[in-house]
């Protein structure tokens, strides 16, 4: 049974998140509906990360197994046709080796957060960026973001309903820069806790407004207390931009090991 890797883009505004749910439309359900429409198969599509309600993606990755050995370009074209009119698109499709898993084979996930930092209200960017009127000190925000890099207990910056077994994560990169009226925050890690990125960005806004310093952020992180977190940023500006994987040869060699420990590997949390 061939396995296909899908690279996916979507506007998260109409959805209750990536994961299929009974209380509203989801990205996963749209994709599974598209597969059934062209192939007649009932499938369960596995994703690399569970984006939360209203969160977008420009580089989500998923995998799907199909009984028929379709050409990858046929799968991509048929799914794009049947995903419409929902704002979901398959950007790339390729056949993968046995054992590839969009979630467990991932070695890095990258997120971008967009803040439109201007006095006038949002028009074209409504629902696609966080509107912050007060001028932000981007240099101070970037300096404070470096506090998060490394291996830490991120209890302060995760949702109280986060299901991860451990609050410890290793943040590889975090940067904040200005592009015209936009403030762009980008970070990467093997995996994230539920609401971790939005919690960190909301806290960095306090730094940008001069209400907190990098030392305040450091103290909040060390507190390991959710009440020490700044206000959580809304989902509007958050995008899953990239999921990285190890080379196929390494993935195949580690296949047995990953399956043996899959029961204890944490999911990438909703962010």
From TrEMBL:
One of its GO terms (molecular function) is tRNA pseudouridine(38-40) synthase activity. Belongs to the tRNA pseudouridine synthase TruA family. This is tRNA pseudouridine synthase A. Its EC number is 5.4.99.12. The lineage of its organism: Bacteria, Pseudomonadati, Pseudomonadota, Alphaproteobacteria, Hyphomicrobiales. It comes from Pannonibacter phragmitetus. Formation of pseudouridine at positions 38, 39 and 40 in the anticodon stem and loop of transfer RNAs. Residues 8-104, 144-245 form the Pseudouridine synthase I TruA alpha/beta domain. It catalyses: uridine(38/39/40) in tRNA = pseudouridine(38/39/40) in tRNA. CDD domains: PseudoU_synth_EcTruA. The active site is at 52 (nucleophile). One of its GO terms (biological process) is tRNA pseudouridine synthesis. It is an enzyme of class 5 (isomerase). PANTHER family: PSEUDOURIDYLATE SYNTHASE, TRNA PSEUDOURIDINE SYNTHASE-LIKE 1. Substrate binds at residue 111. Keywords: Isomerase, tRNA processing. Homodimer. The keyword tRNA processing applies. InterPro entries: PsdUridine_synth_cat_dom_sf, PsdUridine_synth_TruA, PsdUridine_synth_TruA_a/b_dom, PsdUridine_synth_TruA_C, TruA/RsuA/RluB/E/F_N.
């Amino acid at each position: 049974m061939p396995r296909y890797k899908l690279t996916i883009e979507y506007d998260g505004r109409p959805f209750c998140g990536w994961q299929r749910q009974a209380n509203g439309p989801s990205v996963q359900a749209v994709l599974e509906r598209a597969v059934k429409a062209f192939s007649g198969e009932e499938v369960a599509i596995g994703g690399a990360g569970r984006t939360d309600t209203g969160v977008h993606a420009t580089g989500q990755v998923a995998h799907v197994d199909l009984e028929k050995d379709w050409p990858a370009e046929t799968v991509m074209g048929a799914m794009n046709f049947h995903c419409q009119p929902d704002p979901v698109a398959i950007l790339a499709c390729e056949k993968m080796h046995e054992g590839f898993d969009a979630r467990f084979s991932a070695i890095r996930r990258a997120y971008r957060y967009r803040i439109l930092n201007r006095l006038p209200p949002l028009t074209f960017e409504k629902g696609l960026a966080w509107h912050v009127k007060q001028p932000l000190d981007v240099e101070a925000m970037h300096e404070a973001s470096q506090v998060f890099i490394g291996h830490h207990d991120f209890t302060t910056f995760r949702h109280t309903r986060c299901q991860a077994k451990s609050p410890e994560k290793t943040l590889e990169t975090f940067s904040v820069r200005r592009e015209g009226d936009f403030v762009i925050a980008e970070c990467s890690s093997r995996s994230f806790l539920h609401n971790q990125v939005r919690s960190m960005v909301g806290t960095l806004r306090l730094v940008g407004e001069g209400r907190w310093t990098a030392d305040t952020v450091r103290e909040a992180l060390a507190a390991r207390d959710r009440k020490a977190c700044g206000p959580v940023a809304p989902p509007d500006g958050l995008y899953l931009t990239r999921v990285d994987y190890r080379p196929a040869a390494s993935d195949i060699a580690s296949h047995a090991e990953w399956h043996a420990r899959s029961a204890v590997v944490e999911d990438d949390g909703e962010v």
